[in-house]
Specification:
The protein is of the alpha+beta class. It has 8 helices and 26 strands. The strands form 9 sheets. A 4-stranded mixed sheet has the order 2-1-7-6. A 4-stranded antiparallel sheet has the order 8-10-11-12. A hairpin with a 2-residue loop joins strand 18 and strand 19. The longest helix is centred in the last third of the chain and has 34 residues.
């Protein structure tokens, strides 16, 4: 390519424009605009003077053929009265921090040979990132792919012998150089790197390599490029423009389409349709609150955008949020006091029911201990207390149940018992409790038995029978010495006679008393 210039055209000689390499229904690009002296006007707005900004064009610098995307993304460039496309490009490169090499001048015969800048180091110098479809075509066309030697520079003869910079104006690769093109409001200028004299990017005809526009059909990206440039301008003013207008997802998709070398026109058009101007904003759908449960976190009510998928805490879509921020912590269980169940064998369970959800029930087996809390006595019942204990949810719970211990009853013994004798009373004895000492039953006196004389002697105690009657229980009078005339003590006949005498004397006394009383009564009555 030593004797050929890519930017299209010699800059000294203007050739007719070739038709655009797009669909048949795409309009033919107009011939390059010519500058002419303004016709004098009697009335109307003042004509612009050289140096005035008269509009804005859209520029890109692309390395799609290398799989390198944009070097300069779609952006507005001021159109200055009297300035050509080369001068506009030079201003753009300088503003973005690039330098360049060229032949010719900005005013005439400008040919862009190289662009330099640190950002170019991000483009794979080996050529391994060249799209596979293009790589196959380059091999078919006998292009050898070489490694780029200067990572911060990109220009002619890098990678292949057919490489260099070309530009597309209004979707047409003009057959004139940069300096011979003048821009109008809204024009899209795409400065593109080619590996095959333009045939890889749809501009082969501009180099006179044949009637074909290129190896593959290339979509018209002007409208989408223009829309992205407008959005980029808004982002420069407000870094959150995409988020605020629900354009992030659509914008990212559009950039993917724009930076893909071979993409269908349908995909380009669809990407443009998803970036309406003006933006429609978020399409919000209300999502109801999900209350938290004891064990599961809930979610506050929110609004979700069906376009970008973002969540908002307000219906206007002004306050973005996340599910983490909307989360309602699980309430946890609020178990109160348990319900205790005592079985006949004194095994125990404790059942806890959650106050937040009655369906959450936990039953725990208790540990049971017992002790005698009131000892039984002879007459009073005692108490045995059983204590059930469970530990649940970090807290101890207890319950008690009592059991009656029957009174033991008195365990008695006979105390103070004494047999009666002939002359002394006896005693049956008291029944006294050996445990508590209480006299349960009082004993009774047993009367003296008296003597039971037989043959002059008591059969029980052996005492001699006295000569005078002795009343039972009275001490016996000492016996007087007997004389030969006195009857023997043991003579029963004399005792009989004595008793007879006493009886007759008593009857006489009674008769005398009766007689005296009778006489006195008669005297009083007379």
């Amino acid at each position: 390519m030593a004797d050929e210039k890519l930017n299209t055209g010699s800059g000294e000689e203007k050739l007719p424009e070739a038709p655009a390499p797009v669909a048949a229904d795409e309009p033919q690009a107009p011939a390059p605009e010519q500058t002419a002296a303004p016709t004098p006007q009697q009335e109307g707005p003042a004509q612009p003077e050289p140096g005035d900004v008269v509009g804005k064009a859209v520029f890109t610098v692309e390395a799609l053929s290398l799989g390198g995307g944009y070097i300069i993304e779609p952006c507005y460039v001021d159109i200055i009265e009297g300035e050509n496309a080369a001068q506009a490009l030079a201003r753009l490169l300088e503003e973005k921090g690039f330098t360049y090499d060229n032949t010719g001048s900005l005013e005439s015969g400008f040919y862009l040979s190289h662009i330099q800048g640190d950002a170019l180091a991000g483009i794979d110098p080996t050529g391994d990132s060249i799209p596979q479809a293009l790589r196959e075509k380059l091999e078919e066309k006998s292009f050898d792919i070489q490694t780029r030697t200067d990572e911060t520079s990109l220009g002619e003869f890098d990678y292949t012998s057919g490489s260099g910079w070309m530009y597309c104006l209004k979707n047409v690769f003009p057959n004139v150089g940069f300096a011979d093109s003048y821009l109008s409001e809204g024009d899209v200028v795409r400065v593109q790197f080619t590996l095959a004299y333009g045939s890889d990017i749809g501009g082969g005809y501009a180099m006179g390599t044949g009637g074909s526009a290129g190896y593959y059909e290339v979509a018209n990206k002007d409208a989408l490029t223009r829309r992205v440039a407008a959005i980029n301008a808004e982002i420069e003013k407000d870094a959150y423009y995409l988020e605020k207008n629900c354009l992030t997802k659509a914008y990212d998709a559009a950039m993917d389409v724009l930076t893909t070398l071979y993409v269908s026109q349908a995909d380009v058009d669809a990407a443009l349709a998803d970036l309406p101007d003006p933006p429609v904003g978020h399409k919000l759908t209300a999502v109801e609150k999900v209350p938290a449960t004891c064990e599961t976190a809930g979610v506050e009510a929110y609004w979700k955008c069906s376009v970008c998928g973002k969540l908002f805490s307000d219906a206007e879509g002004k306050t973005e949020t996340t599910l983490e921020k909307l989360a309602i912590p699980a309430t946890g269980h609020t178990y109160g006091a348990p319900v205790w169940k005592w079985n006949d064998d004194f095994t125990v369970t404790a059942t806890f029911t959650c106050g937040n959800d009655a369906s959450h029930v936990k039953t725990v087996n208790a540990t049971v201990t017992n002790e005698v809390t009131t000892a039984a006595t002879c007459e009073a019942d005692g108490v045995r207390t059983y204590t059930a204990k469970v530990t649940f949810d970090g807290k101890d719970y207890t319950d008690t149940k009592t059991e009656v211990i029957p009174a033991t009853g008195h365990d008695t013994e006979l105390v103070g018992a004494k047999d009666a004798t002939c002359t002394e009373d006896g005693y049956t004895g008291d029944e006294v409790c050996k445990v508590c000492g209480v006299t349960v039953k009082q004993g009774e006196v047993i009367p003296a038995l008296g003597h039971d004389y037989k043959d002059g002697k008591c059969s029980r105690c052996g005492a001699e029978e006295p000569t005078t009657p002795v009343e039972p229980g009275k001490p016996q009078q000492p016996e007087k010495p007997t004389t030969p005339d006195t009857p023997a003590t043991g003579d029963s006949s004399n005792m009989t006679a004595l008793w007879v005498v006493l009886a007759v004397a008593g009857l006489g006394i009674i008769a005398l008393v009766v007689l005296l009383v009778t006489k006195r009564s008669k005297k009083q009555n007379g």
